[in-house]
Design brief:
Blueprint: E1 21-22, H1 28-37, H2 53-65, E2 80-81, H3 91-96
Antiparallel strand pairs: 1-2
Helix pairs in contact: 1-2
Protoporphyrin IX containing FE binds near residues 13, 22 and 59.
């Protein structure tokens, strides 16, 4: 991975998890889904049945905290740039959409 066997998550068998490029999306939900189901046909296993959904959520949150940690000698970029959706701070718009 990812975290095992490389502790700094800079990527070895799996992708670098500290950059902004993701093969399966970089939202908390996307990362949770990869942890939960794994990626069929690759070495990325599913954690379903091994740890609780709450723990998977913690893992996904932890991965997001690694962003920008700049590990030494990271694996090359893989996947697409993930740009988080902007959260609207315009309360009028929020109300209008309700
Ligand atoms: C705590 C353990 C692990 C976590 C939390 C984890 C997490 C992740 C995440 C979030 C991704 C998606 C990255 C992306 O979208 O770019 C990923 C992909 C991947 N991981 Fe892991 N991983 C773990 C362990 C491992 C291990 C031990 C291996 C291999 C022995 C592995 C192999 C892979 C591979 C090959 C991919 C890319 C799959 C593809 O090509 O689509 N992972 N992992």
């Amino acid at each position: 991975m990812c975290i095992l066997p490389r502790k700094d998550a800079g990527g070895e068998i799996g992708p670098n998890l500290t950059d902004e490029y993701w093969k399966h999306g970089g939202s908390i939900q996307d990362i949770f889904t990869v942890v939960r189901h794994g990626v069929q046909g690759t070495n990325m296993i599913s954690w379903e049945g091994f740890i609780s959904p709450e723990k998977m959520q913690n893992v996904a949150n932890y991965i997001l905290t690694l962003k920008g940690s700049n590990p030494e000698n990271p694996k090359k970029l893989e996947g697409d740039l993930y740009v988080p959706k902007a959260v609207s701070t315009d309360s009028t718009k929020t109300q209008a959409s309700l």
